[in-house]
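The step that takes the researchers longest sounds almost clerical: writing a folded protein down as plain text. The outcome of that step, for a single protein, is printed below.
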Amino acid sequence: MNVPEGFPGGSFRDGHPGGLYARLLAARAPLRHPELPLWVVAPYALVHGAAADPAAYRSGDGILIDEIGRSYDAPPTIMHTDPPDHTRYRGLVAPAFRPSAMRRIEGEVRDRVRALLAPLLASPGGAFDAVERLAVPLPLQVICLLLGIPEDDWPRFFRWSEAIVPGAAPELEERERDALRVECGTYLVRTAHERRAAPRDDVVSRLALAEVDGDRLSDLELVMFLIQLLVAGNETTRHALSGGLRAFAEHPGQWDALRAGGDLGPAVEEILRWTSPVVYFLRTAARDGELGGVRIAEGERVMLLYGAANRDPEAFGADAGRFDAARAPAAPGLAFGFGPHFCLGAALARMEIRILLEELLPRVGRIRPAGEPVHNGSPVVTGLRRCPLELEPA
């Protein structure tokens, strides 16, 4: 099996390339990319093992293909750091994202879900775009609530998020992207300074004032975290929500089973596994070693292909290529990564998906496709740009 030329660019126009994933998985070993200086790693056990071992596979040399050969004066995100720097960052920011902190905002999240669903349920059977009406506004509103951003500024955050994720808004020229990134960073620094002077009960205030043994985040580090939160909490959850709804529309028996008393916990995990919005991250070998029987030399890069690993039959069963909302796999999904870089916002994303399902299940008897979905085509954070659906009342 060979990795096709051009991969992963162009491979996600129609969603996760299931057939290609299956072929990459069949090799059961890292595969040399034909054009890029990296190894493509698809099997679950190998992706899991490399993600869990930052001493062997470091992040500080870049995590995206476009970063190969680049260097930074400061890490662009916490994902670009390794211990002990990563440990310091994690210790400063993790308290703001504990499950207990997420539970405090659950009522507000539910209110937002109900407000978004109300007009859709008031006109049952009508076609609507689930991306535009649900999947975009919900995560964006929740992130802005967490950050303490005034509601009038929420649309700006959507535009900024689109500019930051590679491939998310192909209509934007690079000059426009750069301008929007600077605009976003300037706004966030100003907001952090305001919160330090007059703290509120929000994540910006907690991060601006966070301190461990007298150590605080600098302005540059604050912006790094806040931009990562904006993207990770908005773009990825958006694609999990819309992809999950589309999966239930295309597998009506799964919705019926869930309405008949199915467990929401496995359903949420299956949505995350099935959609796997984050396609890959790179790691760099910190020393000579072996991965899946292949010799990886120090300095060589490996592409940890989370979307493929999440469809590995050896981890999720022979039917790993099928959506099953009652799946009880022997291994945890990798939609949030694994190891030191496990996503800080995992509890928040799970809560949003669960609450949306809880509010839909008693009211909606069937979710139906109402047209063909349109994929964003991004090889980094993949998902739907358009998802036409209809809701049939219970």
In short: The first strand starts at residue 31 and ends at 32. The chain has a mean pLDDT of 91. Residues 219-250 form the longest helix (32 residues). The CA atoms of residues 160 and 180 lie 6 Å apart.
